[in-house]
Structure formats: structure tokens, C-alpha cells
Amino acid sequence: MKCPWCQALENRVMDSRYREGGAVIRRRRKCMACSRRFTTYERVGEIFPWIVKKDGRRESYAREKVVSGIWRACEKLPVSREQMDDVVSKIEIRLCELGEKEVTSNVVGDLVMTHLRDLHQVAYVRFASVYRTFNDLDDFMDELKGLLKKKKVVKVKAKGKAGKKAKAKTKTKAKAKKAGG
């Protein structure tokens, strides 16, 4: 591995750690020539499907494009680089699981939107505003309303679970009082 500062090939691995469930190995290295440290990431070379663009062009899958889109959507939000890398890895795993030789760029965009919706709602809206071609403000508002509806459903489900737990605790306390008194 070349040192990014002096381009020397000799370096020593100082530390190795697994990331993303063992799919990636993060290595801290020290250059033997200039003594500077740098990080490398190793991942299995997977064969990704070709991406068919909207105009019919075909190009190879580019991880950097997905990372760039997610990074722009998450910029200045409380989302860590590790969380973004996890999203990209999940998207790549899903692309490989499809088992297709070619997929449309819409498939990749939809996967990104699905994962961003779960990661951070503002990032989702930012990505959607670029990815989806909204004709006017009404289209954009419809997308936001759909997101808010989903959020309300999740809150109601969470409240339902919390309510059941509270009732269960109350029943347990009542049984304990009867048994003790």
C-alpha cells in the first residue's frame, strides 16, 4: 500500500479492526519512510451490476457516487461517517442480492431514499428534492406529507408499546401489594 504523503511502498500495520459486520477491515498503517500514519479500508471485491441511466447509457457501479450523494444529503446533520458508510454497505449488499447483471439508476436511488428515510428525515428530504424531479411545490409538499404520515404511524405504534408496558408494570405492582399485604 502506497503512503499517501511520500508514495513509499513500505509500511507497517499498527492496528486492524472489523467494521460493518466484518465486511470491511480498517487498518491503521505507519509509513517506514516518513513515519506518518494513514488509514486503509479493505473489502471483498464484489461484482456489482451495471447501472442503466435514464438516457439508456450503461456505466459501472461507482461507490463514490453513492457516497457523495449521501454525504451531500447528510451535510451539517448529526450523522456520522460510520452511519453513512453503513448505509452504502447495505445498498451494495442489496444490489448484489438482486443477482441482476444490470439495474436502472432508479433502483439505486430508491435504495438510497429508503435507507435515508430511516437514518435522518432531513437527509431524506434533501436527497428526494434532488433525486425526484418535483414539478412544483405541491409535489414536494405531497412527499413531505407522506413522510409525516409515516412518522405519526411510528409514534402511535411506539406509544402503544409503551402503554402496554406501563399497564403490565401497574398490574405487577398490584399483585405484589396483594401478596405482601
Across the major sheet, the strand order is 1-2-3
> What summary fits the major beta sheet?
3 strands, antiparallel
How far apart the termini lie comes to 73 Å
Contiguous runs where pLDDT drops below 50 for at least 5 residues: none
Task: Give Rg in angstroms.
Answer: 24 Å
Task: List the total number of helices.
Answer: 5
Note the overall shape.
elongated
Estimate the strand proportion: 15-25%
Helix and strand sequence: EEEEEHHEHHH
Helix percentage: 55-70%
The average pLDDT value, as a whole number, equals: 84
Write up this protein.
55% of the residues lie in helices and 18% in strands. With 181 residues, the protein is of the alpha+beta class. A hairpin with a 4-residue loop joins strand 1 (11-19) and strand 2 (24-31).
Key traits:
181 residues, 18% strand, three-stranded mixed β-sheet, alpha+beta
Indicate the topology:
Elements: E1 11-19, E2 24-31, E3 37-43, E4 50-52, E5 58-59, H1 63-74, H2 81-98, E6 102-104, H3 105-119, H4 121-131, H5 137-180
Parallel strand pairs: 4-6
Antiparallel strand pairs: 1-2, 2-3, 4-5
